[in-house]
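We emphasize that the prediction below concerns an isolated chain of 224 residues; any contacts that depend on oligomerization or on bound cofactors are therefore not represented. The input was used exactly as deposited, without trimming of termini.
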Amino acid sequence: MADCSGYFTFGSICSGAGLGESKRYQEENSKLSAPLGNENRVVFMGNSITEGWKNNHPEFFSSKPYVCRGISGQTTPQMLIRFHQDVVALKPKVVVMLCGINDIAGNTGPSTLEMIEDNIMAMTEIARANKIKVVLSSVLPAFAFPWKPGVEPADKVIELNKWIKSYAEENKLIYVDYFSAMKDERNGLPKSLAEDGIHPNKAGYAIMEPLVDQAIAKALKQKK
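Result of the prediction step, given as a token string:
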């Protein structure tokens, strides 16, 4: 397992530690009541970037019917395994999926872009089969991984985002583009938005929040 101590400014566990955490939210899920009739519940499914969002700015979630289900270090196959219990079972109207960067890093072994795409498609199909509207997020810019020196993710992130956007358009899903709003001249995250170049700080999340709010509003207006 990679030792990335010191890279997580929000006290999260090391990337790669998402292994075996399929029951991470079991207790919280059991305590979450069914949504009220007029409640527009939204589940945020993701990795450390999603988990860190709530840790950095908990008010963003507590002030709205937003449920954070991010687990640090997780890759798309791990999210797919827990998708039913952490998304479908919570009966949201919308799911926001932000995933793929840890697959590119190889946290659970080598992964091709096609493998990531297959898992995103599978989660999308499960959501739609359960009448949950889908917001697909661009992967955030990444120039280098602090816990995986020598890996150059920037071009793969761009390629994956092109596919996510195209897939969203073809399937009438909502796409939220964090990448364009946050990238620097290297197609990475600037230090002003993420001290380690991967995990957003408050300034980074401040850019993301209005973008995802707009995307959620669009999804809620979509016809069934």
